[in-house]
Amino acid sequence: MLKDLFHKKRKYATITTQELAERRDNIPEGIMTKCKNCSELLISRELEKNLKTCPRCGYHFPMSAPERIAATLDEGRFFEYDQGLTSVDPLQFEDYPAKLAQVQAATGLTEAVVTGEGTIGGNPVVMGVMDSRFIMGSMGSVVGEKITRAIERAMEKRYPVIMFAASGGARMQEGVFSLMQMAKTSAALNKLSKEKLLFVSVLTHPTTGGVSASFASLGDINIAEPGALIGFAGRRVIEQTIRQKLPEDFQTAEFLLKHGIIDKVVHRKEMKPTLAKILDLHAGGVRHGS
């Protein structure tokens, strides 16, 4: 009996694989989000309060255009430009109109960029925000037109311009019409430069292809979010072309900062105060360095 007293059998709670699967299926969708970088399970509501950045590793989740506008402008007040502009199908590309309709219904947006005006730290600004949910933020003729019109309005009002880029590049369904937007947006920024007005480019993950090769890289001040992929051609294509192994951090925001391509890497929590400080320094429409 004394032996049994000191060697009592321990009882463990057991659960079958089927019961575990049933419990998992009963968890409402969207409550938890897994970090793509550190695999930490995060409460979605807390993640949104943290501006969609992982509190453990600092990973920056993608933000939609409405989320970015709300997080950046004073009180989220935004007066949108050209909301009615929508793409057509100039090349009669197969299933392109259906694809546009599907994405418009899913995102609630008419195109891959939202442009308009608001204030940051009390400073008026014209702002454009790309949304990677809309055909990977690709730049078609309407995206280029909306960005160009926003820049032209900034010149009329003597406002600085801030653009948040998030794009896979040119939109292949529009062919050469898409490629022409690179020249058009760059020409508009050249006019803005001659008017000595400030342009701040914010590069977010990912900024690639024709967007990175045009307006996104032409800022008086170029800022990027941590870990953002920024480049023109893909890593594998470059390695195959030059027949060399590229550094592990190649085409990241930190790599570009180290090599002088961008001016600063800014955590999303510090983005609004940083932009407000830049606008304060350049208040009155004075161009950086002029």
Automatic annotation (TrEMBL):
Pathway: Lipid metabolism; malonyl-CoA biosynthesis; malonyl-CoA from acetyl-CoA: step 1/1. It is found in: Cytoplasm. It is an enzyme of class 2 (transferase). Binds 1 zinc ion per subunit. Keywords: ATP-binding, Cytoplasm, Fatty acid biosynthesis, Fatty acid metabolism, Ligase, Lipid biosynthesis, Lipid metabolism, Metal-binding, Nucleotide-binding, Transferase, Zinc, Zinc-finger. Residues 31-290 form the CoA carboxyltransferase N-terminal domain. Its EC number is 2.1.3.15. A zinc finger (C4-type) spans 35-57. Zn(2+) binds at residues 35, 38, 54, 57. It catalyses: N(6)-carboxybiotinyl-L-lysyl-[protein] + acetyl-CoA = N(6)-biotinyl-L-lysyl-[protein] + malonyl-CoA. Belongs to the AccD/PCCB family. HAMAP family: AcetylCoA_CT_beta. This is Acetyl-coenzyme A carboxylase carboxyl transferase subunit beta.
